[in-house]
Amino acid sequence: MQGSDASKVIIQYNDAGLSASSGPLRVDAEYFVAINITFKNCIIHVKRVATKGKVKREQMLTGYITAQGRESKEDPSGFVFNNCVIEGSGRALLGRAYRGYSRVVFYETSMSNIIERRGWDAWHRQGQEYVMLLLVYF
């Protein structure tokens, strides 16, 4: 899903009418990407996935909430989650570094116990964590 400009394309929950039971955007997909779109007053619900084999469901990582990356430290992009709620029945990491210089901020965001203790993953950028930023402020 791609917008023309994140300052102009805004999807916002406003508690009007029946939107409390049917949010303005719902995505049921294995993989979802949003580019140049701002989401305001959001709730992120992580669903547990069905598993086969010997791995217990409660031990399995369902996914990542973000995958952000910038080409250089001068790139002004990044993700900011402000006043959000993260909940669900699956296990998740806050993010993974899609490229170097990844920058993600969770600000005044409520997180249930579904977030893995390590919080995030350097992914293919292990050893380069010094150029990445994950900031969580409650």
Automatic annotation (TrEMBL):
The keyword Hydrolase applies. GO terms for biological process: cell wall modification; pectin catabolic process. It is an enzyme of class 3 (hydrolase). Pathway: Glycan metabolism; pectin degradation; 2-dehydro-3-deoxy-D-gluconate from pectin: step 1/5. GO terms for molecular function: pectinesterase activity. Keywords: Aspartyl esterase, Hydrolase. Residues 38-126 form the Pectinesterase catalytic domain. Its EC number is 3.1.1.11. Belongs to the pectinesterase family. This is pectinesterase.
